[in-house]
Every structure is written in structure tokens, then in C-alpha cells.
Write a structure and sequence with these properties.
The protein has helices spanning 25-33, 39-43, 58-68, 71-80, 82-87, and strands at residues 2-9, 17-22, 47-55. The protein is α+β, with helices and mostly antiparallel strands. A three-stranded antiparallel sheet has the order 2-1-3. A hairpin with a 7-residue loop joins strand 1 (2-9) and strand 2 (17-22). The protein is globular and about 35 Å long. The model has no long low-confidence stretch (mean pLDDT 88).
């Protein structure tokens, strides 16, 4: 399986999103949380997994990751998780 995932920074002053791709979601999430993730997640701490999708084909997952990183994709995330963001479930 291939995963596309969204992390949200829990720091009230930041609240940024990180969108990524991995074959092993548990391992990759642990890397992000331990500061061994990408440059973006290693600079900021306190990330939380808020969304993920699973795909059978790598190409489909990479295409979805590319879309979610676009402006339309970010709007999709906020629309898809409207209740999460409205309730401030951080």
C-alpha cells in the first residue's frame, strides 16, 4: 500500500499543514514525530496526523499527493475536514 497523509502542526502560532507520501505510514509518522522527517517537519515540533488515504498503486498516490499540495488540493482538505477545523480538535 501507498499512503498520502496530512499532518497539522499543533502550535497555536503556526497551525501549518504538511502533506506527504509514504509506503510505510507508521514508520514515516514516527520519523516526523522524532524530528527525523523532512526539513519542514524537523524545524517545527508537535505534529499530528489528521488525514490519510491509501492507494494500491504508487503512481496514484503520487498523483494525489501532488494534487493535495496544490491550491485546489489544500482547499479540498479544508472542505473535507471542515468539522475538524471548525471544532478546533487539536
Amino acid at each position: 500500500m501507498y499512503y498520502v497523509y496530512v499532518l497539522r502542526n499543533q502550535d497555536i502560532s503556526t497551525r501549518s499543514l504538511y502533506i506527504g507520501f509514504s509506503e510505510n505510514l507508521k514508520r514515516r509518522l514516527a520519523e516526523h514525530l522524532d524530528g527525523r522527517g523532512g526539513q519542514t517537519t524537523s524545524r517545527k515540533k508537535n505534529w499530528k496526523l489528521i488525514y490519510y488515504e491509501a492507494y494500491l498503486l504508487k503512481e496514484d498516490a503520487l498523483g494525489r499527493e501532488k494534487f493535495l499540495k496544490s491550491g485546489s488540493g489544500r482547499r479540498y482538505i479544508y472542505k473535507q475536514l471542515v468539522h475538524y477545523f471548525d471544532k478546533g480538535l487539536d
